[in-house]
Specification:
By secondary structure, this protein is mostly helical. The protein has helices at 6-31, 46-73, 80-87, 115-148, and strands spanning 41-44, 97-100.
Length: 152
């Protein structure tokens, strides 16, 4: 059994992309901490990933129902909508949303960047990225071992 399945790998790659974009935004925020009028950037993608996971779970449920129907009757029927849904791409609807933070500035210069918050966010983002990257690396190493028959 694979450490993580293909669906999970694709979702993990999307998460890495979102975390990378968040890290870029945090870097821009940090670099512009003293720029008058600069509005802090925020990145969100987690809700998009939750929707993708929910949709993929629905696909699995349809497949299970079709399998059960086939076992009972020897045939199964799928509506054109179900077929289109089952054939939809996993990353359909994936959005990495970068927006200005609407929070008011604490100072007179209109800049709403708090360096302490940015440093904590960067540490959190870096840790999340590292965990996902490590899991993917282990998964690919296991696949390499299976293909080559060698343990590296």
């Amino acid at each position: 059994m694979d450490l993580i399945n293909n669906r999970t790998k694709e979702i993990a790659h999307m998460a890495l992309n979102g975390l990378y974009e968040r890290s870029k935004a945090i870097s821009a925020n940090t670099a512009n901490a003293l720029t008058p009028g600069y509005q802090r950037k925020e990145v969100s993608f987690e809700n998009s990933l939750r929707e993708i996971i929910k949709r993929e779970d629905e696909k699995e449920e349809i497949k299970v129902q079709n399998s059960m129907q086939y076992q009972k009757t020897g045939t199964f029927y799928q509506t054109p909508e179900q077929i289109a849904f089952l054939n939809s791409q996993i990353n359909e609807g994936y959005i990495v949303d970068v927006q200005n933070d609407p929070k008011e500035s604490d100072g007179l210069d209109g800049n709403n960047v708090n360096l302490e918050v940015e440093m904590m966010d960067e540490a959190k983002t870096g840790m999340q990225y590292q965990v996902i990257a490590n899991l993917l690396s282990k998964s690919y190493n296991m696949l390499n071992t299976v293909i080559t028959g060698q343990n590296q």
